[in-house]
Amino acid sequence: MDLRHAIECDAPEPAPLPPGSYRAILQESHDAAIVLDDDMKIVFANASAVRMFGYSRRALLGRPIDRLLPESARKQHVGWMRSMQRAEVHSRPMGPRGRIQALRADGSLIWIEGTVVAYQIAGAPYYAALLRDATQCVEAEEQLQQLAADAQRLARARSSFIANMSHELRTPLNAVIGFAECVAKASVGDLPDKYREYGTHIHEAGEHLLAVINDILAMSELESRQRLLHETELRVRDVADQVCRMLSIRAAKGGHRIVADVPAHLLLYGDAVALPQILINLVGNSLKYSTQPGCVRIAARLLDGGELEIAVEDQGVGMAREEVSQATQPFRRFAKDSLANVAGTGLGLAIVDALVWLHGARMTIESELGVGTTVRLLFPTGRVRFAS
Ligand SMILES: Nc1ncnc2c1ncn2[C@@H]1O[C@H](COP(=O)(O)OP(=O)(O)OP(=O)(O)O)[C@@H](O)[C@H]1O
Ligand SMILES: [Mg+2]
């Protein structure tokens, strides 16, 4: 039975196409179409197949399919096609992973993907393959995988470099800070005032540098997903009071007050290091970016939906809309007209944002220039507990 007849007889019901349609469609298709008989010889190849494999039609017709397959894949592929007839599977994606390698006339290998259809005409098995060249796709995927692997390697190298560097810097820095404090306090014998003043400067500069190194290390741990939460039930009021005490001297220097307005029964299931770290950063910002003496407020409340909101409010210099949208980006800082040379690395809010995210919580910033800023943290109901 000739192939044209075979294809045209096999028209699906109930809408048969006009005679000759199947052959025309196959002939003109941009997908390569190849039909094999039971001896695995090519009995049909359309123009796209001729282009794809680089053989003339005459060099394909009547030749075994082996011609188009690399030697290593021939046996497996032919066996796989025959198994379709045995199992009465009528169509399958090409090859076990949807793609196989094929051999062109010039000896080069290409990746092809598509569908294999197994059918019978008057009891004689046939196989049709509708194929596309997937070489560019496969190469792009391989490149992407390579890039992702490189990026992961680089990220790991960067994290371990930062961790080692931070350790190497912190050890001598702690010695500098400790001895500078001795000099500032003249704890081992009297010293001229000037030297004590220098000691104080070294001490302050050392403390600042240590804070920067700690922030860089914290950010690096968060970015490389190495920071894990150690969760316990935290009494939010205790944490707020602790933060108020820790920052009270800094607040008093600028004439500010920090107040905590937190109901005693509210507990948060969270990390005992992260929550103070979050609040210290937020209250620290409120103090740093307030020119006029004022009040910084830490407030917590239960929302109607059962979430816990913790807010830090100030009446400081505020932020423009553009600043608000970029403030959580690492190392992003903004010059403030009303504040000259405020120290900082621009990591505080990035660290807060990442810690908040680790808790499955959300952070929002409301701010207006010259009016003040409120940062709200919204912890999900699953983290809220109540003291008995
Ligand atoms: N309460 C606030 N009021 C006004 N501006 C703020 C406030 N909090 C943050 N900002 C702005 O957002 C920027 C980013 O804040 P972030 O805490 O990340 O960095 P930083 O305070 O500059 O430095 P670091 O916290 O690393 O010492 C700040 O430089 C500042 O411009
Ligand atoms: Mg900050």
Short summary:
The protein is of the alpha+beta class and 388 residues long. The protein contains 11 helices and 14 strands.
Give a structural overview.
The chain is of the alpha+beta class. It is built from eleven helices and 14 strands. The chain has three domains: 3-133, Beta-Lactamase; 143-223, Helix Hairpins (Orthogonal Bundle); 231-386, Histidine kinase-like ATPase, C-terminal domain (Heat Shock Protein 90, 2-Layer Sandwich), CATH 3.30.565.10. The chain has helices at 3-9, 21-28, 47-53, 57-60, 71-86, 135-185, 193-223, 236-253, 274-288, 321-326, 348-358; strands at 32-36, 42-45, 91-93, 99-103, 109-121, 124-133, 231-235, 257-261, 266-271, 295-302, 308-314, 362-368, 372-379, 384-386. Strands 1, 2, 3, 4, 5 and 6 form a six-stranded antiparallel β-sheet that branches. A five-stranded mixed β-sheet has the order 8-10-11-13-12, with helices on one face. A three-stranded antiparallel β-sheet has the order 7-9-14. Strand 12 and strand 13 (372-379) form a beta hairpin. Helix 6 (135-185) runs antiparallel to helix 7 (193-223), helix 7 (193-223) packs parallel to helix 11 and helix 9 (274-288) runs antiparallel to helix 11 (348-358). The N and C termini lie far apart (87 Å). Residues 215, 285-286, 288-289, 314, 316-319, 323, 327, 332-334, 344-350, 373 line the site of adenosine-5'-triphosphate.
